Amino acid sequence: MKRLKKKKVNAGVVVNRNGSVSKEPDSGKKQKLAEIHQALNSDPVDIETLRRAAASKGGLLTDEVRRKVWPKLLNINVYDLPHKPGRDVRENHKDYNQVVLDVRRSMKRFPKGMPATDRGVLQEQLIDIILQVLKWSPQLHYYQGYHDVAVTLLLVAGERMAIAMLHTLSNHHLRDFMDPTMDSTKHILNYLMPILEQVDTKLHDFMMRSDVGTIFALSWLITWYGHVLSEFRHTLRLYDFFLASHPLMPIYLAATIVLYREKEVKKTECDMAMVHHLLSRIPQDLPYEFLIGQSLRLFDQYPPSLLAKRAELQSRKSQTASHSLPHLPSSICLRIHPSVPLLLPSLRL
Hints:
Layout: E1 7-10, E2 13-15, E3 21-23, H1 27-41, H2 47-55, H3 63-73, H4 96-104, H5 116-136, H6 146-157, H7 159-170, H8 183-189, H9 192-199, H10 201-210, H11 218-222, H12 232-243, H13 249-260, H14 262-267, H15 272-279, H16 288-301, H17 304-322, E4 333-337, E5 340-343
Antiparallel strand pairs: 1-2, 2-3, 4-5
Helix pairs in contact: 1-2, 4-5, 5-6, 5-7, 6-7, 8-17, 9-10, 9-13, 9-17, 13-16
């Protein structure tokens, strides 16, 4: 496959090899880049500076920087990367058919205009990356949406580095999503309502009356928003943020998005289907830097330790409500684990 080189298209604009667009650095960005490179060259590497850079305005700025910083944030030894998977990784793998199906339907996750042959090569690599990580860690269970995380890593870092990063993420940040049941994932979702309750009681009460629950945010959470954002640059910005943050930060961002859309929500008919329809579709023009800043403030003000009991209570309420859950349209039903039926927003592959 021909290497997709970075090229200038307009003054001050650069197209990265994965199709994302970034502006050439101004003086403030140049200073940030200098601080990042200084942190990378420190002995030991200054991880805290890298975390601050990834979370602060603009994130890590370029894919070239991400290829250097993301592995450091995950404590990956870049001098001891795994080899590319052999053909045997696909043999007798219980998840092979589902992984292939999901990857084949993931065309929108690749840069627009990418030649079909190049995309085909990357899709084959994506299949192997996922199967290799699952083979190394048989306790992990594949879920639909996992490939959305894997493809982001692949497009930025390449095959070998993506394997190493996905393996680490799967055993840490994504671990709760990879249980044999969805119980741990639903528990994380149950942090959303307690956050809303702390910040906007009226909004919280409205959503509780509507019985909308938290399923609308499931695809956001398990794909780190990669599946629901149309612009890859926004996905990259959020990955910078999440890689530098607590594993529960994606649910804080979910709460921040709901709070940001508070007026829209309250104007909607207090009906489960209506509120779900509104919230399950993320506007593509959200102010991501503002939302990231708000999420950090919410996390500092209402840390998980403060919300744990409320989240557990929310779990009990959800279990009680599930016994009398009304019928939902098939458009929001999906089997996320091959063996576990669950109600969730449609993952538009």
